Amino acid sequence: MSALQAVYLQDGALEAGCDEAGRGCLAGPVFAAAVILPPGFHHPLLNDSKQLTQKQRETLRRVIEQEAQAWAVAQVSPQEIDQINILNASLLAMHRAIDQLWLLPQRLLIDGNRFVPYQDIPHYCIVKGDTRFASIAAASILAKTHRDACMDALAAQHPGYGWSENKGYPTTQHRLAIARLGVTPHHRRSFRLLR
């Protein structure tokens, strides 16, 4: 864990870290995770999911799911994204993840600068929070690995778009496939799919 990371914002309270994955994609759901880590949790690899290899993320996913006091992952579909926009969909995915926690957190640590209050639980928006707090880093890893698994499954149903590699992000390969094959039910039609 980097020197910048702490397990808790304040000791003595159940804190859930929250983060999302897939906000900038052209296809697939947006995912979010909420994680409550135990006091004193430490893992030398733990960091923002974007700083890790796929193998490191998968290793950490197993550790987090086994050792967290509570964790949950949720998603918002492309159709919902098109209806409410990607920012609102990302926040909704976080709410859905918190809904599923089997422990009610006393404080929420949110990666980024925007959040819609959840019930009456105090929340703190922390820019680059996934590099500063272990619980947010853990949430970023769960959101990313669960979303990647989803996109791998969708890739098998819709070959040709390269989703196993690009995970739905706007790569040249993905845009060329959309031009050639058209859109699928998993594409976000409110996004600019072609240049």
Gist of the model:
By secondary structure, the protein is of the alpha/beta class.
How is this structure best described in words?
This protein has about 200 residues and is of the alpha/beta class. The protein has a single domain (about 15-150), classed as Nucleotidyltransferase, domain 5. The chain has six helices and five strands. Strands 3-2-1-4-5 form a five-stranded mixed beta sheet, with helices on both faces. Strand 1 (about 15-20) and strand 2 (about 30-35) form a beta hairpin. It is globular.
CATH superfamily, please?
Ribonuclease H-like superfamily/Ribonuclease H
Helical percentage: 25-40%
CATH class: Alpha Beta
* Cα distance spanning the termini: 40 Å
Strand order of the main beta sheet, please?
3-2-1-4-5
Overall radius of gyration: 17 Å
Number of domains: 1
Primary descriptors:
6 helices; 195 residues; five-stranded mixed sheet; Nucleotidyltransferase, domain 5; 5 strands; alpha/beta
List the helices and strands and how they pair.
Blueprint: E1 15-21, E2 30-36, H1 54-67, E3 70-76, H2 78-84, H3 86-100, E4 107-111, E5 123-126, H4 134-157, H5 163-166, H6 172-181
Parallel strand pairs: 1-4, 4-5
Antiparallel strand pairs: 1-2, 2-3
